[in-house]
């Protein structure tokens, strides 16, 4: 799930030489970079610092709509690489559409030194960006999941985040909160399965297995995620609203939190500036005591089309933007893009308290979960599977269409099999 954030217009500057797979400051020529919305603005922001290292490379950043970028990639690959930029932004969940349906359209970045960057990013970020030993894109932003909460409303209800370890604890606290304040603990709607994906991911389950060869939505971890969704819905602790409705509920003090990727920081801050100091974050609840309290929702990457006339310069730009602390932390500080780059954890800015969040060092707390996030595979059939699970979620929670979560997910698995031709795991 990618949502626009309010972007700062400050440019990023270079304070140290970037970590590069292979640095050649004599590179020259022109490259075009295509992305969308705040992502494009953030890339524009690193150009000045990049040109301090590579003064002879002219960078043009194209800012298009998210769907327009995706459609351009599909059309360009279908036309043999025509009208594609030198650097192409792609969402992780959609990336495998390109690698699988258009083999040869994008450069294997191991030929440009990308293999040296593997250890600089968490394993889960590479799952959809590589095929075997080949790497087709470098991780950019991520969406490590945390619980956002209103400190003042929790305190009014006598709730401490320290006492919330599991989803059962979360639900019990939510009922207390609702009784004391009339506010809900989190929100979700029935047009997206994002919260279910978070729950499934933390359980080590997703639409497909890690090999991308079998459907797994009816495996125990995914079924447990659906059961938790049912508990959240039936207990009354969740506000059922759309994106804009949630923002309004936050402003009206009737929504006291959310369970989303770290990018939601920008949404809360920009939507309710008057609530500064009243917000905080804590780890997402686990399915059971001692369980995983981490998941990912959202994230993008940068790739180089094989038709690029200047792949070395394109790789230098990607490496500067994504595999250097100044690039990644600068985009976090000025544009709210949550880095995947592990060395960013040691940056002083990440460790600072943030006034809006009650001086909590939220970025340190959010990024600390990166290494704990289980892998998840969207495959080229991500959108088909997502729509089927979203429909199943609504039918199970509100329409009584299934007797159990297992029955609901068994049906979803068969529907996905029909739409993709992939087998259901174990069948």
Key descriptive features of the protein:
427 residues; alpha/beta; D-Maltodextrin-Binding Protein, domain 2; 2 domains; seven-stranded mixed β-sheet; two-stranded antiparallel sheet; 41% helix; globular
Low-confidence stretches: 1-22
Mind telling me the C-alpha Rg?
21 Å
Q: Please give the alpha-carbon distance between the first and last residues.
A: 31 Å
Number of domains: 2
Main sheet? 7 strands, mixed
Helix and strand pattern? EHEHEHHEEEHHEHHEHEHEEHHHHHH
The rough form would be described as globular
**Helix-strand category:** alpha/beta
3D structure, described in words:
The protein has 427 residues and is an alpha/beta fold. It folds into 2 domains: 29-142 and 299-363, D-Maltodextrin-Binding Protein, domain 2; 144-296 and 374-420, D-Maltodextrin-Binding Protein, domain 2 (3-Layer(aba) Sandwich), CATH 3.40.190.10. Helix content is 41%, strand content 15%. It has helices at residues 37-53, 66-78, 92-101, 123-126, 151-156, 167-181, 194-202, 220-235, 243-251, 264-271, 311-322, 325-335, 348-351, 362-367, 382-398, 405-420, and strands at 29-36, 57-64, 87-91, 130-131, 134-135, 138-150, 186-188, 238-240, 257-261, 279-283, 296-303. The strands form 3 sheets. Strands 1, 2, 3, 6, 9, 10 and 11 form a 7-stranded mixed beta sheet that branches. A two-stranded antiparallel sheet has the order 4-5. The chain starts with 28 loop residues before the first strand and ends in a 7-residue tail after the last helix.
